[in-house]
C-alpha cells in the first residue's frame, strides 16, 4: 500500500470520526492529547478540524504555532497553477456537481424533502468514493480535504434536516474553491457560466 493511499485512508477515518456524534467519539479509548484535540476541533465552524491538528495527525509538514504565511500551505505555488484531478476525483466531484444542481429545485420549493435528503446522501457517497480512491499528493490532498470535509458536514446536516437550506449554501461555499484549485473541466466550465 502506497504512502499516499495510506494517508488518504487515515484522512478518511478521521473524516468519519469528525462527523460522528460527540458521544460516539468519546466512547472510544483516546489519549488525553487526542481528546483535547477533539475538543478544540469541535469549537471550529462546520465541524472542520483545526488546521494544525489535521496536518499534525496526518504527519504532513506544518509550520510552528503562531507563524503566518502569505498563502495557505496546500494551495498551488501560483494563482494560475491547479492541482491535477484524476479520473476518480473527477467522477466523485461530477456526482457532487449533479446533486448540487438538483438541489436548486429544493431551494425553489420544487423538490420534496425526501428527495433532498437523497441528494445529500449522494453527496456523502461521492465524498466517501473520493476519499476511498484518493491518489493525490499530500499537498493536493490537504487542499481537497479543505473542500470535502465541510461539504460532507453540510450534506449530513441537510440529510438530517431537509428544511435546512443553509446546509445547501454551505455545500456550495465548500466547493467554491474546487474549480480554482483543481483542473477539472466540468467544474471549470460551470464556474465560468
Topology:
Layout (H helix, E strand, L loop, with lengths): L2 H17 L2 H5 L5 H11 L8 H8 L24 E2 L2 H21 L5 H20 L5 H23 L4 H11 L2 H4 E2 L1 H8 L1
Parallel strand pairs: 1-2
Helix pairs in contact: 1-7, 5-6, 6-7, 7-8
Key words describing this protein structure:
two-stranded parallel ribbon; mainly alpha; 10 helices; 66% helix; 193 residues
Shape type? elongated
- The tally of helices reads 10
Question: What does the largest sheet look like?
Answer: 2 strands, parallel
Unreliable stretches covering 5 or more consecutive residues: 9-75
The share of residues in helices is 55-70%
Would you tell me the structural class of the helices and strands? mainly alpha
Q: What string gives the helices and strands in order?
A: HHHHEHHHHHEH
Instruction: State which percent range the strand residues make up.
Output: under 5%
Strand order in space, largest sheet:
1-2
Distance between the termini: 40 Å
Question: How many domains would you count in the coordinates?
Answer: 2
Amino acid at each position: 500500500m502506497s504512502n499516499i493511499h495510506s494517508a488518504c485512508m487515515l484522512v478518511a477515518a478521521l473524516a468519519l470520526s469528525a462527523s460522528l456524534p460527540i458521544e460516539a467519539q468519546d466512547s472510544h479509548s483516546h489519549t488525553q492529547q487526542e481528546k483535547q484535540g477533539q475538543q478544540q476541533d469541535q469549537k471550529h465552524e462546520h465541524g472542520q478540524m483545526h488546521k494544525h491538528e489535521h496536518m499534525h495527525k496526518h504527519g504532513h509538514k506544518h509550520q510552528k504555532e503562531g507563524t503566518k504565511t502569505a498563502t495557505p500551505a496546500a494551495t498551488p505555488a501560483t494563482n494560475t497553477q491547479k492541482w491535477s484531478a484524476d479520473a476518480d476525483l473527477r467522477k466523485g466531484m461530477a456526482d457532487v456537481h449533479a446533486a448540487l444542481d438538483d438541489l436548486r429545485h429544493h431551494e425553489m420549493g420544487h423538490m420534496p424533502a425526501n428527495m433532498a435528503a437523497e441528494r445529500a446522501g449522494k453527496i456523502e457517497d461521492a465524498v466517501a468514493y473520493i476519499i476511498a480512491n484518493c491518489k493525490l499528493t499530500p499537498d493536493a490532498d490537504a487542499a481537497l480535504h479543505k473542500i470535502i470535509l465541510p461539504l460532507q458536514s453540510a450534506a449530513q446536516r441537510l440529510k438530517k434536516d431537509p428544511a435546512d437550506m443553509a446546509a445547501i449554501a454551505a455545500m456550495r461555499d465548500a466547493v467554491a474553491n474546487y474549480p480554482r484549485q483543481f483542473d477539472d473541466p466540468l467544474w471549470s466550465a460551470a464556474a465560468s457560466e
